[in-house]
Specification:
CATH topology of the largest domain: Beta Polymerase, domain 2
Number of strands: 7
CATH superfamily of the largest domain: CorA soluble domain-like
Shape: elongated
Largest sheet: 7 strands, mixed
Strand order of the largest sheet: 2-1-3-7-6-5-4
CATH architecture of the largest domain: 2-Layer Sandwich
Number of helices: 7
Order of helices and strands: EEEHHEEEEHHHHH
CATH class of the largest domain: Alpha Beta
Length: 352
């Protein structure tokens, strides 16, 4: 299925707020993990049953759900934490555009987690929905993974500000992890793009062209995914939600700078790829000019010879080779040798 759009036929005609999962099932069974912490204490539970989720007002509660295809479980969360129906609809739609929505009972953010498949040289995207309430942050991921393990380690070891801050700072820390990964991913692909220039100069083959088009596609995908996140962060900066504390606002400015840098890098590499496309086309044109130059020289040599042969033919009374026993085979050998030599020359000059 295309990464830009997903099949939403299943949701056609349904009322707004309907609980319909749009996307692909990526785990067999949903899993709930919980981290509860304050400045001095930490509680952590893995694979918790929904009915055993305990709400603790004295802690920041980070509830993370892997697997969002189970609409019954999602409905239970919506009822337990008083999610708005439109928020529930956005949570279940993995094709949702990155956004930040301020509801009466919660603040909702939706964006993409990006990873790079080294083997296939392709960017993979996963939807994450984050719901912020007073002392609660509930994150919904499509599949299990270790994307936020560095952040969890910071919480466990009480590194930085996160253990002494409120749930809105945890939202900032999650967004910071995601946006920082965007920047790293753009740089990783950027290094490969920069190496492409020497390949184009040395070898203008179809494989290089395919690689060029592949990078163009990946950069277009990154631009589509990351550009709306800038709007999300700007909205986060300007939000007057009661769930965002004034002391968290200055940290959000750093997010804005980082996402702007990532977008500028994407634009730079997209422009660079267009220049490489032009370089490739110029290389092809130069190569074609060289081919035509040599072929013209060959043609110039053989045209007068062919003209003379055309007038006189080989119908002379005395042609020594006519009565030689192996003339026919010698003629074929000479023709094959000439063809082979020309093919060798063309191959060596990389004309095909």
């Amino acid at each position: 299925m295309a990464r830009f759009l997903k099949n939403r036929d299943i949701a056609l005609g349904e009322a707004p707020g309907s609980l319909i999962f749009v996307g692909q099932k990526k785990v067999d069974k949903p899993q709930i993990n919980i981290i509860q912490y304050n400045k001095s204490d930490l509680l952590e539970s893995s694979d918790v049953e929904f009915r055993k989720i305990e709400q603790n007002e004295n802690f920041v509660n980070w509830i993370n759900i892997y697997g969002i295809h189970d609409t019954d479980l999602m409905k239970s969360f919506g009822e337990k934490f008083d999610f708005h129906p439109l928020l529930m609809e956005d949570l279940l739609n993995t094709a949702q555009r990155p956004k930040l929505e301020d509801f009466e009972s919660s603040l909702f953010a939706s964006l993409k987690l990006l990873t790079y498949d080294e083997e296939n040289e392709r960017v993979n995207a996963e939807q994450i929905g984050i719901v912020l309430q007073e002392n609660y942050l509930i994150s919904f991921q499509e599949r299990r993974g270790d994307f936020f393990n560095p952040l969890r380690e910071r919480i466990r070891k009480a590194k930085g500000k996160v253990r002494s801050a409120s749930a809105d700072y945890l939202l900032y820390a999650i967004l910071d992890t995601i946006v920082d990964n965007y920047h790293s991913l753009v740089e990783k692909i950027g290094y490969r793009i920069e190496d492409l220039e020497s390949k184009i100069i040395d070898d203008s083959s179809s494989e290089v062209l395919e690689e060029l088009h592949s990078f163009k596609k990946e950069m277009n995908f990154l631009h589509k995914v990351i550009r709306p996140v800038k709007e999300l962060i700007l909205k986060f900066q300007k939000s007057e939600s009661d769930f965002i504390k004034p002391e968290t606002k200055p940290f959000i400015n750093d997010l804005s700078d980082l996402i702007t840098h990532s977008l500028e890098s994407i634009e730079t590499y997209r422009s660079l790829l267009n220049d490489f496309q032009e370089l490739y086309n110029n290389g092809l044109n130069n190569k074609m000019n060289s081919v035509m130059k040599v072929l013209t020289i060959f043609a110039s040599i053989f045209i007068p010879l062919t003209f003379i042969a055309g007038i006189y033919g080989t119908n002379f009374d005395y042609v020594p080779e006519l009565h030689f026993r192996y003339s026919y085979f010698i003629m074929w050998a000479i023709m094959v040798i000439i063809a082979a030599v020309m093919l060798y020359i063309f191959k060596k000059r990389k004309w095909f």
